[in-house]
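Dear U.,

Please find below the material for section 3 of the report. The protein was modelled together with pyridoxal-5'-phosphate; I have listed the sequence and SMILES used, followed by the predicted complex structure.
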Amino acid sequence: MNLRTPGPIPCPDEILEASAKQMINHRGPEFQDLVNNITQGLKKVYRTKNDVLTLTGSGTGSMEAAIVNTLSPGDTVLSVSIGVFGDRFAQIAEAYGAKVEKLTFPWGNAIDPDILQDTLSKNPDIKAVLVTHNETSTGVTNDLEKVAKVVKESDKLLIVDAISSLSSLPFYTDDWGCDVVVAGSQKGWMVAPGLSFISMSDRAWAAFEESKMPKFYWDVGKAKTYLDRGQTPWTPAVAIMYGLEISLKMIVDEGLENVYARHKEMGDTVRNGVKNIGLDLFANESCASNTVTSVHIPEGIEAKELLGTLRTDYNVVIAGGQGSLDGKIMRIGHMGQVPMTDLDEALGSLKAGLDKVGFQPNYSGARG
Ligand SMILES: *Cc1c(COP(=O)(O)O)cnc(C)c1O
């Protein structure tokens, strides 16, 4: 199957094989080596000197961890959202009693740093800013370097969802001044779903000391204490960690700059490919993501029928739209080590599948 969803993504064979190994004692020396290797690798990919903790749970779990470990009920938080995952961050903060101010931008577009700056200067009560680096629901990448600069200039805590970007797109945790950054294993890290990661700056740890939101499973204080002795507080997803140890080595060996360049090339290939088929991109091309491409479902075509045909007749799985974009867009994932032939095959199948469901690309144009 050519799995072209924006997570989970296909895992390389050596990673799958590593994950099939026999279990070890998670309170023993073998695990200590495993978790220490993983932590070193994660720090390289995060490009940080800060603590990076590995949590067992999906990406949303680490988003929840980011909130409950740095905030208190009643704190004013600015949620900057450009899609479904940005909205989710706000919902989590609200669920734990934060006072959430919302700054939203039209779906398909990125954050305007000037508007963000203006909002922050008018709301001195804001303690923290929630940002999605790469909005997977719309296929848009924010200019996080600029966003972070604005947030840091106004001296707020910066909490970033980098779940569909970190390990694939350029990311500089320390240079950009990101206080808390979360990521998830089933995206560009090329392993199975079930692990998530969270980095904490000194400022984030200071916020942790004061935070009063309830926490137990996600308590990063416990996670840090255990990590210092090469353990995790609870039984972790050991099998996924075996795979992650290999994937981190693959990423570091390839070189982060090469990984970023390859994703740019994949993004260009898919964007050009869908345009050549006669489809329209959904995301504004100036901020289109290099890990996921969003495409308008053409007029007169049923999204369900198209995606179903691609799956059953061509063995290609493409994601549909989320929330209000359900039925309106499709999303093609291109994170991790994707052979270019897989992308070409997916694009060829998309063209053939569209033809099968009755798409006429030059409908209004001249036809011989
Ligand atoms: C996938 C994703 C999530 C959610 O992760 P889960 O692992 O499904 O909980 C959150 N934010 C972004 C940007 C994502 O791409």
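For the text of the report, you could mention the following: The mean pLDDT is 97.

Regards,
Y.
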